[in-house]
Amino acid sequence: MKSLKLWTLAISLGVAMVAFGEVIYQENFDSLRTLDGFEQHGGQWSIAEGKLVGRGNGYLARILLPPVAKGQDIALEADFRMTYSPQPMNWASIFVRYVHGKVPVFIQMPVRYSGWTEIAEAKINEEGKFDWQVYRATQIGDKKKAEDFRRLRLEVRGIVAKTFVDGKPIATTLLAGRTEHDGRVGICSSVTGIEIDNIVVETLPPVSAEEREKLLFEGSTRPLVIAHQGDFAQYPGNTLEAVRAAIVCGADVVEVDVRLSMDNIPYCMHDDTVQGTTDGKGKGCEMTMEQLKTLNAGFRRGEKFKHCKVPTFEEIVVECKKTKTPILIDLKEGRAAKAICEILKAHDYFDSVLVGTGSADTAKVFKSYHPGVTLIATSGYLDNPGQDYMLKLKRDGFDAVFTAFRRPFKVDVKLVRKSGLALYVWTIDNASDVVAAWRHGADGIVTNEPEMALDTLKRIQRAIGEW
Questions:
Q1: What is the C-alpha radius of gyration for the chain, rounded to an integer number of angstroms?
Q2: Which CATH architecture has domain 224-464?
Q3: Between the chain's N and C termini, which has fewer beta carbons within 10 Å?
Q4: Whole-model pTM?
């Protein structure tokens, strides 16, 4: 996976394809007049104009399909739209593996009014409160409104869950081993109004022992590993050599800092002055690109790297495009935005970049060139900013937020999710912090040690199947 449309930011190393099975139940509500055989738990459910209509009262409403629609390896597919939602973070879902008991549990695919969807293990506790373990949150990424019909599909086979919208793969994740059980399927609504049509339930072939082993090693979702300035641990940062090394080691994304030279050419360097990383002196913005190219970009790392040069941003794009490796642009100077956009446009690479900026005005420049570009709001320490701040970022066109990682980690990840944003953290250079960031639900980890981060996440993947 190398496309950086936000709905594909969840890493899935296997190809997400629809797994067709045997149809065991289907209903289009054209001739059905009553909900006999359905099991209702809260809310208001009815059939109107050939559709199943539901609305949650207070907090939660569920309806289970007739008992024939059940299984462990199963898929539920339906046309789905929202007719009412008081807030952007409100949701409704389709679910499978529903088990009655003192604490009902199930696997669900919630869709939020804001356009985000999740794969989650849900339960209703003894007090009637709803709780869940979110495995993966992603943005659908289409141009539809919540009121438009979408075709949702949730597949669960063994410890693997996949979601699709209108036939397009959205997310794949490994589930905890405890979720492997038989159960019924149904629809759930919070305080939203929904319409459902053309339901199809299929039983799917079970996951073989060989498939399970492969998935444990290769198929789970995890945070993006973002190589800070390339493979900074091995090479001078922001150089072509560092970028190539990051690609070779398997980093999901390469991050570079971008500035603008005196002759309006975007180049890659962290500091505004050149003496921090090169053998030169002065401000980079007061030098032409030709002058910047004369500098030794490996000067601070010894004789071994004296051949390294200051690269133009376009050189980085050309290098990454060879392997379709995404780029995270840490924009150091807003005035470089238009020149960067022209380069991305010329190389048709907008869909493979993320742009980090702290300026809403700069974000608008990128959106004006490519409305679908992924924008990340940069910040220092994002502790408890509040929902108003998060929703403002969303209104300003941002898709995600960046924050420095420190312990204790005080960011309210659920609040970030409810606001329709993804979460990226920087800079993590040890295994214990990689594990902590994963536990907190980070969507991306910026690191100077991409090989270490990838190895740590692989070890986590091995353990998930035994969880």
A1: 24
A2: Alpha-Beta Barrel (3.20)
A3: C
A4: 0.63
